[in-house]
Predict the structure.
Amino acid sequence: MTASARDALLDSLLENARYSTADLARMTGLDESDVEAAIADLEEDGVVRGYRAVVDWESTDRERVRAVVEVNVELDRETGYGDVSRRLAGYDAVDTLRLVSGDYDFHVEVIGDSMRDVSAFIADEIAPIPAVTQTVTHYAMTTYKESGVDFGDGDDDDRLSVSP
Amino acid sequence: MGIQLSERVQAVPPSGIRKFFELAEERDDVISLGVGEPDFATPWRARTAAVDSLERGQTSYTANRGMRELREAIGEHVDAEYDLEYDPDEEILVTAGASEAVDLAFRAFVNPGDTVAVAEPAYVSYAPGVTFAGGEVLPVPTYERDEFRLTREALEASGAADAEVLVMCFPNNPTGATMELEHLAPVAEFAREHDLTVISDEIYAALQYEHEHTSIATLPGMASRTVVVNGFSKAYAMTGLRLGYVMGPAEAITGMNRIHQYGMLSAPTTAQHAALEALEHCDDAVDEMTAAYDRRRQFLLARFEELGIECFRAKGAFYAFPEVPTEQTGDEFAEDLLEAEGVAVVPGSVFGSGGEGHLRVSYATGMDELREATDRIERFLD
Ligand SMILES: Cc1ncc(COP(=O)(O)O)c(C=O)c1O
């Protein structure tokens, strides 16, 4: 498989991970069996780490709360960022975890069923970690765009149906 | 007595596209593969540049030839991308769409009664533009057996040796055909031998999928007899901003500007600011859009093959040009398909000689629509 075919495959999956193998084959010019093998490789090599839906919770009846938590840590001889990250990443409530540059160390996105839920999680689980010196929690009030998907309804096709 | 239209206007029939547009407009469940413009919005940075320019009150005319900075950026861009070298002061003119550039070229180069050879199937505006300029259209057919490339043989057989001007467009609307150096060389030779002025519409230059663009103006002896038309509509998804440009020898551009300065004064200022930003900062967006078109192109060609629809492998623009898969004419097929399944395609006959028996199928539409449309075509053919 050429690098460009692999790229085309990745781009297609990023566009829509639910494209059928047959469609992916058509779009990339590969055989279906090659597509399957390539996807298996991408998964095995840890390039593709998973697939999930991008959900606009505000359009559902379910209560979901997302918070962005800035976490500062103080490291010592025994504790590195890797150690802290392992502790944080272990929690199901932690959806996204990144070490970032700037005023704080870890950017943590926490998901819960209610604000109380999320607050309790931060107070009971994150703050007590010995390396953690400070947390600042921002509750997400409205999501406008997530994982590249714009939640506005700006994508109506208002082009003429037949044009030169 | 009311207004009497000029003979030139009366000589031009309404566009064949119009009929399919009206048919398609009658229903609301149409999936359209009849669209000749990108389905992407203009890259965000270019849009914000337009807004910024408005906020800063940059709403006056620019120089007739276009903002100097933009002409410089165009010059650098075409040099880097296509090896075309033009002086921004004298050899580049910014226009209100490639459409205006094409029209200016006809008016600047065509005398009443002059013959203008048009490689067909062709974009729908060329023939009327020639008529408005008082010229006579000489169609030069391109053939599926040549993957719809313009050939020296066709130029000779159609009598283009006696023409004054040759209009060509590769990558082509409607066929998606492209021409590489080896195919352009005999055409260039013919143009030199017969002293033709060439109008080369290269608005789809950035949208090529299996090779890079070669401009006929880069061939020996061609720069002095060619004007190259390009624009922002297709590559940068800027159709509504109406911005194009034309490049050529100083005399040609000066002549075209003479018309432009009276007819248009200057291209839209806001659009020029967007275009400058597009050239300087939107390469990634162009790459992404091109990659998306390519995936859809391959999808469409693969689906046609599965459905037994004959189609050469078009490598440019965002059109496939398959053969009509039934015994019908293209018009009949397109009408029936629209009626039965709500899929709009444009019959090839709309684009002039050699288009009959074919359909223009645009893939400037999302994958979901493309999948659904081809499923409906499959059902229609069963
Ligand atoms: C071949 C060709 N030239 C020119 C144009 C017009 O471009 P613009 O929007 O820049 O006027 C089109 C639009 O469909 C086209 O297909």
